[in-house]
Amino acid sequence: MNHSSEQPLERVTIPALQQWKDNGRRVVMTTAYDAVAARIADPIVDIILVGDSVGNVCLGFDNTLPVSVAMMNHHLEAVARTRPHALLVADMPFLSFHVGSEDTIRNAGGFLQRGADAVKLEGGAKRIEMVRALVDCEIPVMGHLGLTPQSVNVMGGFKVQGRTTDTALRLLDDAHRLQEAGCFALVLEGIPAELAARATEVLTIPTIGIGAGPNCSGQVLVFHDVLGLTEGHRPKFVRAYTNGFQLFQEALSRWAADIRKGAFPGSEECYRLPDQLRHAIADWVPSNST
Predict the structure, then answer these.
(1) Of 46, 59, 266, 271, which has the fewest beta carbons less than 10 angstroms from its beta carbon?
(2) Could you read off the pLDDT of 38-95 as tens digits, one per residue?
(3) Global pTM value
(4) Is 53 annotated as a binding residue?
(5) Long-range contacts, stretch 220-226, CB < 8 angstroms, 24+ apart
């Protein structure tokens, strides 16, 4: 939905998301890794995710595994300074919630202290203890099942999940267990549409799909993917709504050409001296140096 920028936007809350799920209103979620993207997205979307996908989208890594808590803090703080109306969710990066409840709570709590409204973590049954620990500390948790990028090495690459009876039923069981542990929503990534539809049907909490078909409670795509800012191969589930990479390069090329032919800056981009000062600098000559 598009909001008018002339009126203050009402903050999106977790209870509002649940109400939207109950009423059938679809949720729109995208990523932001800096203040510019957050300001562009905020009047339009319901949830902004400061994702560990910043690693491969912006920082040049092959995957999300090298992203640290310190990196996440840096990008989260940039987005939080814009004071978005959207619910602001921070990804918990690899190893930030794997080594014990105390470290998990400290890392997640640090995200909330820096402006996040909630955290997102990947995994199913193995992460139930951590989810419960966070929820017990009043830290809202969004779960993430299916193609979980932090498990790329175990999965043998970025592959669709839930295509066998065992894995499909395990996903449904994990989704139910995460809901019971207190997750307020689940991201379902890279799974067959029918499986995501069934999960959405049996869960009471909202599901946010990415490569999971049209029947989830909402959808998420990476900001740069929607705007066509990424090079090379795009996943099947990505729909780019403009070719931002080409558009930006064309604009930059026009600027560079104007510089090279002396057309930039023009008079409208220049500051001017008062007449008397122009005469003074015109008459200036260097003093004799010793």
Answers:
(1) 271
(2) 999 999 999 999 999 999 999 999 999 999 999 999 999 999 999 999 999 999 999 9
(3) 0.93
(4) yes
(5) 220/29, 220/30, 220/31, 220/47, 220/49, 220/187, 221/30, 222/30, 222/31, 222/51, 222/53, 222/57, 223/30, 223/31, 223/32, 223/33, 223/37, 223/40, 223/41, 224/31, 224/57, 224/58, 226/30
